[in-house]
Amino acid sequence: MARTFAFVAPREPRPIGTLLDLQAERDPTAPALTCGADTLSRSELARRAQGRARALRAAGVVAGDFVALALPSGPAVLELAFGCWRIGATPAPLSHRLPRLELDALLEVLHPRLVVGDGEMGAEATRLRERDLRDGPAEAEAEPGLVAAHVKAIASGGSTGRPKIIVDHARSVLDPDAPSLGMRPGDTVVIPGPMYHSAPFGLAYQALCWGCHVVIMPRFDAAETLGLVERHHAQWLYQVPTMMHRIWRLDAERARYDVSSLEIVCHIAAACPVWLKEKWIEWLGPDRVWEVYSGTEAIGATSIGGREWLERRGSVGRLLPGASVRILDEHGDDVPAGAVGEIYFKAAGGRGSTYHYLGAEPRALGEWETFGDLGRVDDDGYLYLADRRTDLIITGGANVYPAEVEAALDAYPGVLASVVIGLPDSDLGHRVHAIVEVQRDVASLDVEALQGFLAERLVGYKRPRSIEVTFERLRDDSGKVRRSALRDARLTAGGTP
Predict the structure, then answer these.
(1) Element (H or E) spanning 198, and its range?
(2) What is the pTM (predicted TM-score) of this model?
(3) 171 with 158: CB under 8 angstroms?
(4) How confident is the model over 145-163, as pLDDT tens digits?
């Protein structure tokens, strides 16, 4: 019987800082967190979080503070996050690979009490290395039951490249006996995404609170992800479309892995190309594949299962209870039914109830706010994404949505990922330019054959006028891409790669 994938309302929320202890009391030797060859039991993870909390408090962190965690994805990020919650502080996971200038810009916006990281930072905040925060004196033990006003703070540069922090208005409480999204206590949950992104981080700490065995990765690898599912008999797998694409491109190698234990594959973070979603549903069956559309701001969300999706190909589902949705044009007016416009949500508690920005202002019309995505709603209330307004290319007066072109490019054999941008054109205003990532062992990509492939799938004005081939990774492990940086680099080079 297929699992129920649902958002479960908490009945008895408790402080998150106490929940590792609770799960350890229930089964101290059960596996809690795995990364690489190392697995921590529930009792081991709880003890580490206790030590981290004492060390953080000894370093001067108090309830209400932000703590920046500029660390590689690994157990330390989650240990320190739970340490923060134990003392009523808010963790802010950041990428340890950020250039110093970008990291400093984020820290200037965040104003953390403490920065944990091994790199050099110019910010004025106190900085300590992770190894210096593994334990603290007994007198620094926090009183039980402290709750942070904000469960997390997540950095986002977005397509604009301007640093901002999204501060979650959810308090650090969770019901340990109300698991959501199809998870069950004792499940093994594989989360190959980086801990500095909202969804992987949020899913990981919630799954630990619900008594699951969480398996994370220092960095995403397609074959290793399937290997982890097989070795740990995982029931639940987090994915983004970029990961799904790289796993699908394993071709015959994919069949070597036994993934029959999987009951839920949940993909988030970006629109999934229709062809790729179809392939995963064919592979695993429609009852295992689920999609969630939302944002770190949590102003609204939709979900859809594979069986329902087959009847509404391309949809990201219907709105979950609580929020409202409208599709508006550039003047702020409602578009006709079924027409594409910008997607606006009104959160259940009204504007400002779910988050606030540091370093930016929300895009809002009264009580209605937007992630910046374009889309449409059909007569039955199903939402379909088009693209982000900032990514829209207007060429010769026609609108081109990069995601649609990228979906066609990614379906071509040998293409690992693609990014489509608009470059200035004296005749068209902007021309469609495609950057295509291939494997290093690919001798060359037949661009003419690729154009023929696209001609069967896209109308003429949507097809790239120029195609650039690269071996460099275009998207990070969460499928994110900085289009503005790619565009600026090519403009600096004269607009022609």
Answers:
(1) helix 198-209
(2) 0.85
(3) no
(4) 899 999 999 997 544 446 7
54 and 116 share one domain = yes
- Same-domain check for residues 289 and 252: no
Gap between the Cα atoms of 153 and 116, Å rounded: 15
Domain match, 430 and 334 both: no
Give residue 107's pLDDT band: very low, low, confident or very high (50, 70, 90): very high
Q: Hey, which bits of 230-354 come out as E strands?
A: 236-239, 264-267, 289-293, 302-305, 315-319, 324-328, 341-346
Neighbours of 370 (CB within 10 A): 22
122: pLDDT strictly greater than 70: no
Average pLDDT over residues 67-92: 97
Helices then strands, each counted (H, E), the chain: 12, 29
- Pairing mode, strands 393-395 and 382-388: unpaired
Domain finish residue from 210, 245, 267: 267
Query: Which of these, 97, 86, 13, 8, lies nearest to 47 by C-alpha position?
Result: 86
Query: What's 241's DSSP letter?
Result: H
Residue 346 belongs to domain spanning = 274-390
Number of structural domains in the chain = 3
**3 lies in some domain:** no
Q: How far apart are CA 433 and CA 64, in angstroms?
A: 46
Give yes or no: residues 263 and 284 share one domain: no
